[in-house]
Amino acid sequence: MIVRCAYLEGRVEAANLARFDDFIAREIVPVMKRFPGVRSVRVMRALSVEDDGPLLHMTFESVYDSVEAMNHAFGFPVRQELKARMKEILPLFTGRLFHITQELIADEPA
What we know:
Layout: E1 2-12, H1 17-32, E2 40-45, E3 56-64, H2 67-74, H3 77-89, E4 93-103
Helix pairs in contact: 1-3
């Protein structure tokens, strides 16, 4: 399994936090779920950062069967739609957006 992660490193002002989170949940997550072949999507907002780690405000995860499946999905118009929708809310965010593609090594219930 492949996990495509997008990270928002930076911050959203407290006054805009509810609006930002609501937009992500109501507008972004449904678009993420429309990518062909996506198995699951998750979005998490950091509560705390330890040990001088980067100030990651939010993490987005999309799971695919393979890199090929992910790349195939990225060829569909939904990717451009997602980018356009993110541009609508990113003015409330100060920082950078970056991506990491990871291979899932273990995913076990406790």
